[in-house]
Specification:
This protein is an alpha+beta fold. It is about 35% helix and about 30% strand. It contains 6 helices and 7 strands. Helix 4 packs across helix 5. About 30% of the residues are buried.
C-alpha cells in the first residue's frame, strides 16, 4: 500500500466524529453505542479516563478515518474468557468513514496497530473478540495472523475469541517484508 498510516491518541474534541461513526449503519450493529449524544459523551469521557485502555484515531495520508481501542486484557471483562498473561493486550476497531470501506485499508491498519502493541516487550499475545456475526472483521483478523479460539459470551455480545501470538505475527509479516525487499 503506497499510503501513509498513522495513529494519534483520541481526544475529547473528537467526540462528535466518533459519535457520528457509532451511528453509522455499518458500525452500530456491532458496537451498540449508537446512543443519544449526551449518553455517548458520558461513555466516551469515561473511556478516555480508563487507565486500562488507550483510544486512538487511525489516519490514512493524514485523514482521520478509523477508531481504535487498545487495552490490557487484565482489568477487562475479557480476562474471564481465558487465562491471560499479565501483558496480553486486546484491540477493538472500526472504519468510520464510508469512503474507506471495502478498499483494503483494514488489514494494513490492523497490522500496524498490532505491530505497535507488540512493541511492548512483555506482550506476547494480542487478543480480539469481534462480534460473531461480523464475518468481514473475523476474516481481516485471520489474515493479520489471529487464530480463532472459541465463541464466547460477553455482556454485550456473542464474540469470536481470537489470539495473535507474537511469534506467528512476526514470522508472517517479517517474511512478507523480506519478499517485498527482493
Amino acid at each position: 500500500m503506497q499510503r501513509t498510516i498513522a495513529f494519534r491518541k483520541a481526544r475529547i474534541d473528537d467526540i462528535a466524529l466518533v459519535h457520528k461513526w457509532m451511528n453509522e449503519d455499518h458500525v452500530h450493529p456491532f458496537w451498540q453505542l449508537n446512543f443519544p449524544f449526551e449518553r455517548f459523551e458520558k461513555h466516551y469521557r469515561k473511556a478516555l479516563l480508563d487507565t486500562h485502555q488507550t483510544l486512538y484515531l487511525g489516519m490514512i495520508d493524514g485523514e482521520v478515518m478509523s477508531y481504535w481501542e487498545a487495552y490490557w486484557v487484565q482489568g477487562d471483562v475479557l480476562e474471564n474468557a481465558y487465562s491471560p498473561k499479565a501483558y496480553d493486550q486486546g484491540i477493538h476497531l472500526l472504519i468510520g468513514e464510508k469512503d474507506y470501506l471495502g478498499s483494503g485499508f483494514a488489514l494494513p491498519l490492523l497490522r500496524a496497530m498490532v505491530r505497535f502493541q507488540f512493541q511492548h516487550e512483555a506482550t506476547t499475545k494480542v487478543v480480539a473478540e469481534p462480534d460473531i456475526r461480523n464475518d468481514k472483521m473475523i476474516h481481516i483478523f485471520e489474515r493479520c495472523g489471529f487464530a480463532p479460539i472459541a465463541p464466547i459470551r460477553l455482556p454485550d455480545k456473542e464474540a469470536q475469541l481470537m489470539f495473535c501470538e507474537r511469534e506467528t505475527f512476526e514470522k508472517r509479516w517479517n517474511d512478507e517484508y523480506k519478499k517485498a525487499d527482493l
